[in-house]
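Readers of this paper often ask what the protein records in our data store actually look like. Such a record has a labelled line for the sequence and another for the backbone structure tokens. Nothing more is needed to write down the fold, since each code stands for a local backbone conformation. The record that follows is passed on verbatim for readers who wish to inspect the format.
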Amino acid sequence: MTVTRSPHLDRRQFLATAAGTAAGLAAPSNVSWWTLPRTWRSRAQASDWVLRGAAIYDGTGAPARELDVAISGDRIEAVAPRLDVAGAQIVDLRGLALSPGFVDIHSHSDLGLLVDPRAQSKVRQGVTTEITGQDGSSIGPWSEERLRETAASYRTRYGVEIDFRDLAGFLGRLEREPAAVNIASMVGHGTVRAMVIGETGRPATEAERRRMAALVEEALRTGACGVSSGLEYLPGAFADVAELTDVAAPLRGTGLPYASHMRNEDDHLLAAIEEAFNVGRRAGASVHLSHLKAQGARNWWKASVVLEMVDAARAGGLDVTFDVYPYVAYSTGLSNMFPVWAREGGTEALLARLDNASTAPRIEADVRDKVDQLGSWDAVQITNTAADSLAWARGKRLGQLAAARGVEPYALFLQIVRGDRNRSGMIGFGMSEENVGRFLAHPASIVCSDGSALAVEGPLSGGAPHPRNFGTFTRVLGVFCRERRVLPLETAIHKMTLAPARRLKLAGRGVIAPGAFADLVAFDPDRVSDRATFEAPLQYPVGVPHVMVNGQWVLRDGEHTGARPGRVVEPGRMAHPSQPP
């Protein structure tokens, strides 16, 4: 990065010269009103930076243009072909692309940002905003018991104190102790259900549904940007459509989505999609399908039908989008290999059923059918174990590991489950590369990682996690844009920036325009690439030298600066609390 200081125009001359040009070039008509504030210039401050010579991808999907970007405080001051202002530091970005910082619409960083606020694996991909509270699980509202368990776990493992029990408390903590990235959160249906009903599998009563809806309303008032559900997980899997409708109903009129990890992503995928659409229609809410996939080779043909269903729903007036990550494998808990009925009641109940002569054969049949759907035991890779005594399994494919140890694969699977008390994680190789590309290219898709902010060293570097934690956004740019040409670069950037920001009404994010927040990423379009693999996932990408969050450099010349300028962002809220509303 080359930095010089401009000796040219003073601020008054600069504004007079740049305003007209920048308005025409950087504020296209398809940028919503909420991206362009009217109060940001109330701060009497000269520009701090002029970023010069980059190919600007403004987030709208428009082709690149070579323009300068001036930054004052936390905002973009102007965008024009040539900007000079006295005192500004000039950053030469010739040969690089400059885009809005990437908005990861489906993230699981959550409490990890308190453990390591640098958000290394996300920042180095160009991510500047993370959307947490996914798959039905958010940081609160928690019962006293859940708070005690979580607090004890994080105190013991990381030395981090948890002093909150709901989303407002969590977001307040991040405002006081910011991370390197911005954060927004949905409220999780599963978390709310556990608070009201517990882990039981019975249907909710009408009074309980009202209580859940009230908790969702409270979360939305305190800044939640949607409602998520995780219907393959407990206790969310126990909800029926009536319950989901009541929980999503507070979204009516907000434009914020009901985002669903659907009940099924393989043999019953089409029915699961229809259920999600029905919840949206009955609740009067937008619908967002989480990490859309057709899982298992016998279900790959359904991708065409899925996209037809999305198109038909949108044509019929339902506001539908979906997110997708650029990999052929998913990641979840190893417990997800078991059917829902076997998991009801928690770990002790599951282990008892595995030892029960009447239920064990049924469980085994369901697990083996899941493996058949994936293809083989080698399609199951262990990512992490809570017990260090099982470290030998981390990063290994179950089929290969069983052969090496001379054990039948299902027996080895049960050995790990029992030895780790059902706390292990897995990667499942179940998707088609062609379908991933088709989903990415669809007009309704948004890029997500479905991963967490991790690091190659320190407390968040353990195990063998899915490479999506380290490479999602750079893989889209390098593999699906540059190499395979599945979609143009400007389209991919739109799906990473303005599209998710609009979906969640994150004012001033996801666009390069005067008055927008200065969340920016500079990358080399000829070099940008992911390096993380399933065999060696703890590797940062290449080709992303500079990242700015709220006007501060977090990544500069490929090095993390240690800055933590991230903020809590909420739907529709433009100004930071310290600035004019």
About this structure: The CA atoms of residues 106 and 450 lie 5 Å apart.
